[in-house]
Amino acid sequence: MRPVYFDRYPTIHFERDAQGILLMRLHTNGGPVVYASQNHSDWCAAFYEVGADRDNQVVILTGTGDAFINRFGWDKPNSGPADWDVIYWEGRRMLRNLLDIEVPVIGAVNGPATIHAELAVLSDITLAASTATFQDKPHIPFGTVPGDGVHVVWQELLGINRGRYFLLTGQKLSAQQALELGVVNEVLPPEQLLPRAYELARQLAALPPLTRRYSRVALTHRMKRLMDEALGYGLALEGLAALDTLRPPGANESGGNSK
């Protein structure tokens, strides 16, 4: 029977085969993701439902077309605390819900991942097409604090000094650089990306069920702890700085209008 949630999220396409290998393909209107509020909301809730569905044995997370996530289309205001609270609420849960999926997750980065690349690189196994690039474009390059979990992920993957450099300079890594730095595990021609992901998924799906599930639990424990320690605080700092940046011209330091 097709799970109800397969049809619940307009920005995610789901497919599941007889072995329980679930493909989650992120998209916007069937094409590459144009990152907007609907994507953010869908990811937060869908990761929870995927994790709660015990018929899922392995998850493959990928994008659509020639990009993983590389374009903006944000469509909601962030001009006050109530606006930011929605992002804060979803942001605290989104990465935790992803990490709480208790089966192996394979990231298949099908092209540039310059927005929310952490969704893919948090996978247990991360594959990249040779056309992929990695960057944190939405934060420092746009004058925003990198506090939505990227501050945890990239320092953990790249090391403290390289991670801070990556975030503070808007550095872009090629697929080969990402491989050499340990961010991804394999680089493949684009046409070989999903076949290789399924090959690895079938290998993992053949493991005894509790071995497969509990291995994921054991291997994500450290990252969950780091997220619990730093994610909420980082989002609060990001929101505070964003609201300051968006203050109307002429507003004084106390929040009133200068005369």
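^ that was protein a. below is b, sequence first then the tokens
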Amino acid sequence: MAGGWTRDGAVNDQIDDTVKDAVLRARAETPRGESATHCNECGEPIPEARRKAVPGVRTCVACQSRRDARRTATGINRRGSKDSQLR
């Protein structure tokens, strides 16, 4: 059932688009190619197990953890309320 000014399935379409955007962003950020032997940020050696597990890795676990902690969600807010869209 549509919510007045939207068509049936519009909310599901928004959710699907949000998930699709997140998947595409994650794939774009996935390292590729040959792994570095030393971390690009701190210079410490990257363990062979990490290089095998994550092909194309450029950072050690500690530096990658710090980068991930700083990362914020970005993108389009597809869940804005109807009231905010009418203003």
